[in-house]
Amino acid sequence: MRWSFLVLPAAIAAASAGCSHPGGGEVSAAPSSAPSPAPPAATDPNHSPPRDTLDAERYNGWKQFSLHCARCHGDNAQGTSFAPSLVAALGPAGDVATQDAFLAIVSQGRPDKGMPSAATLGLDSVYFNGLYRYLKGRSNGQLHGGRPARRDQ
Ligand code: HEC
User: Fold this and answer.
1) Band of pLDDT at residue 60, cut at 50, 70 and 90
2) Sign of the C-alpha dihedral computed for residues 16, 18, 24 and 30 taken in this order
3) Ligand 1: residues whose CB is within 6 Å?
4) How far is the CA of 84 from the centre of ligand 1 (A)?
5) What are the tens digits of pLDDT across the range 35-55?
6) For the chain, which domains are there?
7) pLDDT of 10 strictly over 80
8) Is pLDDT of 15 > 60?
9) Among 16, 62, 130, 144, which residue's Cβ finds the most Cβ atoms within 10 Å?
């Protein structure tokens, strides 16, 4: 009888861990390897691991792009049927060659052509620099598409 006290709770714990998490071994192993984030990301079938690691300003630029611009210019700034590619526009042969030209368009927009101003979008000017740096990195091939990682410093 005494054994049941010792064995049963362990058996229940093992069984419930196995039942509630198919492939639970992998999941429950994650917290113990938390200091190195790469292995769990690599085994996640739904999210590919980040390919770029950005400083905070540039990372926030990516975030603001995703919030305010991606719905028209595409998730990776590659353009859509509705709005042009910013990878091309900020590139060497593009229309928006300088940061000043970029900021003029972003702050004023081109309301008559379907491009809203920053104020209309609710984009704060503190993010302008990071937004430009993110898009410039996309246009010169330094940054890949997709979700980047953030370097904390
Ligand atoms: C509602 C859709 C929409 C949103 C949101 C939007 N844009 Fe645009 N954007 C456009 C359209 C349409 C054009 C093309 C305007 C034209 O024909 O001159 C454009 C043009 C531009 C251009 C000039 C490109 C070129 O080749 O001349 C830049 C730069 C730009 N957008 C940046 C941004 C940024 C940065 C954001 C987010 C802060 C943003 N846009 C959000 C629709 C949008």
Assistant:
1) very high
2) positive
3) 68-69, 71-73, 82-84, 86, 89, 95-96, 102, 105-106, 110, 113-116, 121, 123, 131
4) 7
5) 655 555 567 788 788 999 999
6) 54-148 (1.10.760.10)
7) no
8) no
9) 62
Mean pLDDT, to the nearest integer, of 110-116? 98
CA 1 → CA 4, 5, 91, distances in Å? 6, 7, 76
Residue type, 34: A
Instruction: Give 73 Cα–ligand 1 centroid separation in angstroms.
Output: 7
> How far, in Å, CA of 105 to CA of 143, rounded?
22
Phi, psi of 150 (to 5 degrees): -105, 130
Q: Is the pLDDT of residue 20 over 50?
A: no
Contact 95/89 with Cβ under 8 angstroms? yes
Specify the residue with its C-alpha closest to ligand 1, atom 2.
Answer: 72
Do the bridges between strand 149-150 and strand 53-54 make them parallel or antiparallel, or are there none, so unpaired?
parallel
Q: How buried is 9 (Cβ within 10 angstroms: 0-12 exposed, 13-18 middle, 19+ buried)? A: exposed
Measured in Å, residue 136 CA sits from the centre of ligand 1 at 15
Mean pLDDT value across residues 7-29: 45
Q: What is the pLDDT of residue 28?
A: 46
